[in-house]
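Backbone-to-sequence.
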């Protein structure tokens, strides 16, 4: 007697076979597409660094221009605890390469990051990496026209990741760009809007006492240390302000900027 093709066991076998085939297809696609995805992520990162530096404009440049423009920058590793560049010997001992080091991947590794206490964790990131890659536009030996530093901080829904470009004085902002965030489109998501980011160039981080004086002000930030907050996105605006306060402060790049610029 022939078996019932509609039996429960046959249905389960067919379902398992379909699942197995689909798993193989999806896994194969993931493996094949991974290099392309990584390349696109690298392109997007470099594009945001260039945009923060005021060098890349999507209306004037194409993706093909990114590699040429980015080649003008030099990646360098910074020891945040010591407030200085890592030497080549130090980087070699740590097995770190400025061109490939990804601080997001090591942010939970106790060897490369430290836990932050509530009082110190102004940006609500929980852990701070010990080493960070910055990007410099050099004008000569130990002379920098521009420095681009990575910044991150908690907004409304999660951590916002971006790059802040500073002029050679280590105080004047050239620009800001975000490459990853989960803020609400049309509200906090406006941190990526070129019209909002256009306020940042020329603003200053530190006051005359070398304290972080930068603020995101609700209702119109017009001072040299102020930008206007985002309408309807108070927590995101506060998160951006806290992010700047932390990463330009004593636990961030503040000591490095004092020592190296």
């Amino acid at each position: 007697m022939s078996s019932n093709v509609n039996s429960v066991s046959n249905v389960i076998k067919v379902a398992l076979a379909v699942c197995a085939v689909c798993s193989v297809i999806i896994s194969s696609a993931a493996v094949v597409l991974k290099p392309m995805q990584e390349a696109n992520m690298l392109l997007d990162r470099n594009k945001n660094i260039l945009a923060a530096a005021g060098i890349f404009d999507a209306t004037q440049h194409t993706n093909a221009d990114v590699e040429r423009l980015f080649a003008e920058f030099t990646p360098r590793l910074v020891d945040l605890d010591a407030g200085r560049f890592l030497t080549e010997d130090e980087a070699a001992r740590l097995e770190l390469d400025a061109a490939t080091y990804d601080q997001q991947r090591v942010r939970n590794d106790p060897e490369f990051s430290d836990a932050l206490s509530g009082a110190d964790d102004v940006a609500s990131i929980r852990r701070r990496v010990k080493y960070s890659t910055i990007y410099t536009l050099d004008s000569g030996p130990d002379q920098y026209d521009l420095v681009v530093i990575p910044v991150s901080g908690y907004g409304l829904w999660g951590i916002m990741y971006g790059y802040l470009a500073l002029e050679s004085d280590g105080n004047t902002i050239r620009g800001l760009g975000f490459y990853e965030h989960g803020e609400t489109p049309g509200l906090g998501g406006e941190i990526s809007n070129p019209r909002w980011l256009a306020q940042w160039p020329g603003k200053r981080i530190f006051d005359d006492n070398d304290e972080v004086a930068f603020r995101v002000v609700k209702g119109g930030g017009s001072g040299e240390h102020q930008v206007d907050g985002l309408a309807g996105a108070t927590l995101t605006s506060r998160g951006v302000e806290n992010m700047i306060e932390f990463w330009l402060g004593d636990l961030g790049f503040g000591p490095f900027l004092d020592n190296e610029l």
